[in-house]
Target: Long-chain-fatty-acid--CoA ligase
Amino acid sequence: MSERLKSPYLGHRTVDAKGQPGPYVWRTYAECGELRSAIGSGLVHLGVPPGSTVGLYSVNTPEWCLVDAAAHAYSMVSVPLYDTLGPDTAAPRLHAVQYICNHAELAVVACSADVLPKMVEVLHDCPTVKLVVVFGTRPHQRLPEVPGAPHCRLLTLDRVKALGYKHPKPHHPPKPSDVALINYTSGTTGVPKGAVITHANIVANAAGAGMLLSQGPQGPLFAHGDRHICYLPLAHIYERFNFTLATHYGCAAGFYRGNVLELLEDIQELRPTIFSSVPRLWNRIYDKVLAQIQAANPVSRALFNTAYKYKQEAFRRGDLSGGRLGPFWDKLVFSKVKARVGGEVRLLSSGASPISPEVFDFLRICFGATVLEGYGMTETSCLISMTPPGDPKTGHVGPPSPACEIKLDDIPEMGYTNADQPYPRGEICVRGPIIFQGYYKDEANTRDTLDAHGWLHTGDVGMWIEGGRLKIIDRKKNIFKLAQGEYVAPEKIENVYARSPFVMQSFVYGNSLRPQLVAVAIPDPDFLLPWAKERGLPKDMGELCRHPQVVAAVLKSMLEEGRAAGLKGFEQVAAVHLHHEPFSVENGMMTPTFKLKRPQAQTFFQAAIDEMYSKLPQL
Model:
């Protein structure tokens, strides 16, 4: 334990007066423990009692984690706030923060100086918020006045810590059944729902994951001294889960600077050994590497292809070491790819949405690391199942976590039953100590999700394959019915179309009065621009998106991918509209975990959707 206390825990990069970042600066576990107690003592001294709800509002920072830990040490409830919970304009985003402040009856909000103006703007309508604690302020920076909110006090985190050091209070440890956090969904539809998660839920989830992670080919996959890059939103359960495991195993967590454009630079400085991300990033790395290989000279291209095929065949034989020559090819060819993420990564994990088997294999081959795919959701405190570290088979999410049980419920209207051959199919239902307590102040949605026997109905469709592995095959919640009565799951189709080199993102839409699907696609400029140049087409992405030859080529490629994946005729789109601006959190089209906000996308592209349907036959 003494060794753990002296080891680095939370790290960040300092930036000089010229804006140049320096190396990572670290606080040890012991130092963070003291800061946690000081912050918690300061809050208690300021009149915040156990059971109070404490909002956290910022991008990932060490301070976010310290306030979170302080809240838990004194039996307070953590409530993460997203910066972009609302749909697509500044006002609704502020209203979403205001909604959560009032719905969760926040007593305290800890926020960064960057988002303080947004917080101040809604404080007059948040009567329960008595204290705002601000971190990341500049030296001697004055906090603003809050007109219209005399009930609320603004203090810097440094001031709260100073009060805590002056007036130390003993910890008030929570009971396992006490609420640890209210995690609001990121709002892909309607009003955000607050998932109530206890300390027992979090511990059970981490314990189940720990049992799976202890079974790596060379021992435990998380270990004391590992370095984790903390950049996925801590307000989402996936990164909280990653950070909890990193803390449990004594790892060092290095924080990015808050700008995704600088993420690669931060990663190369940190040299993480553990890198958890989402398919969106893995797909980008995959596309860029393959594009560079295609553009390389014939000798380099042949060398890469030979090395890739050698390791791929070894994996298919079940040899995850990459074969006898695997280390040779890693050093000669793949070390250049691995250097993109610092060169020392040994564990990659993917979650939040499905990853294609091709990209999964690519990561294993090129990074020479253990690659895992997890399946989970906020309502299960995160992990439900995970691919075993030594499993050579891809395209599934592994067996259940030891902390839960899974059953498949028949969905006759979609043609999925437990009697299906060769594999049982149905809606994935989960039960066990990881299951949340319900949605805060929302009995109706809780009843829709949790049945009387304790089963959580996920809305995902799965099937059991060989070895007790779970494979996600469909989505029940976002399905819609076409005019001919066929049910369609757009997310499944979008994942297929993402395999097209032309397509970076897509939005598949169906109208119950029409028999065809249509789509909006965001072309990948890294592929489209060179393709267009070879054909003498315009260089501007906006012009290319309107060019008939480009539209036809993209649609052709999408349909080819659909046929290769076995999509039925009614699952293929009949028309596509191209748009040059990617879906993003900033433009309100995606949640902070990069899930498409379908209602917002439909509203934004309604004119294009109507135009596509106007040109299609009324079958």
In short: The CA atoms of residues 418 and 424 lie 4 Å apart.
